[in-house]
Design a protein that fits this description.
Pathway: Protein modification; protein lipoylation via endogenous pathway; protein N(6)-(lipoyl)lysine from octanoyl-[acyl-carrier-protein]: step 1/2
Enzyme class: transferase
Distance between the termini: 12 Å
Strand order of the largest sheet: 1-2-6-10-9-8-7
Number of helices: 3
Shape: globular
Radius of gyration: 16 Å
Order of helices and strands: EHEEEEEHEEEEH
Protein name: Octanoyltransferase
CATH superfamily: Bira Bifunctional Protein, Domain 2
Family: Belongs to the LipB family.
Function: Catalyzes the transfer of endogenously produced octanoic acid from octanoyl-acyl-carrier-protein onto the lipoyl domains of lipoate-dependent enzymes. Lipoyl-ACP can also act as a substrate although octanoyl-ACP is likely to be the physiological substrate.
Number of domains: 1
Strand content: 25-35%
CATH architecture: 2-Layer Sandwich
Helix content: 10-25%
Structural class: alpha+beta
CATH topology: BirA Bifunctional Protein, domain 2
Length: about 200
């Protein structure tokens, strides 16, 4: 079954999250899977296990309690967000397999730009020289996934200084722009989505 790709542009976090919940609640056995490509205005999000002690000094940036997995992260303009609304039961896919698929898709896309990135068994996401460049947070409901991944591309990274990113004190972050790569989010999204779709359709 083909996967529908939607380019949403810049969208508020909360309404996009509600749209994902609605889509997942209303989908049926024959509903096609979807990939949503977007960016968000500045926002901190706390995952289901998120501890507010990891919010150090959020200032005027709003904090939203989300239903994804994981701890606290930051989203802002210039960060590529890809949401994967996938029927994992239909694909006979485990959650760990989906996480690995998303990590490998980011690693593949970064390699296209000469960046060597790795996944870590102890902390989901993708890292360059021990600095986090890509994050993953998922929710599984009715055997279907929503939320997805984020890649730091060309953004203001300073808001990460005001949280313990992903619940880790002192975890540094990086982005493509700081690694000498200039690419639009639309261009960066292409190899990421292609790698996800290729892996899911095997």
């Amino acid at each position: 079954m083909p996967i529908t790709i939607r380019n949403l542009g810049i969208q508020p976090y909360e309404s996009t999250w509600q749209d994902m919940q609605r889509f997942t609640q209303n989908r049926e056995a024959e509903t096609a899977d979807e990939i949503w490509i977007t960016e968000h205005p500045p926002v901190y999000t706390l995952g289901l296990n998120g501890k507010r002690e990891h919010l150090l000094n959020t200032g005027a940036i709003p904090v939203i309690n989300s239903d994804r997995g994981g701890q606290v992260t930051y989203h802002g303009p210039g960060q590529l967000i890809i949401y994967t609304l996938i029927d994992i039961k239909r694909l006979n896919l485990g959650v760990r397999q989906l996480v690995t698929t998303l990590e490998q898709a980011m690693i593949f896309a970064l390699a296209q730009h000469g960046i060597i990135a790795v996944a870590r068994a102890d902390a989901p996401g993708v890292y360059v020289d021990n600095k986090k460049i890509g994050s993953i947070g998922l929710r599984i409901k009715r055997n279907c996934s929503y939320h997805g991944l984020s890649i730091n591309n060309h953004m203001d990274l300073r808001p990460f200084d005001h949280i313990n990113t992903c619940g880790y004190s002192g975890l540094e972050v990086t982005q493509l722009a700081d690694l000498g790569v200039t690419v639009s989010n639309a261009e960066l999204a292409i190899p990421v989505t292609q790698a996800i779709i290729t892996a899911l359709q095997k």
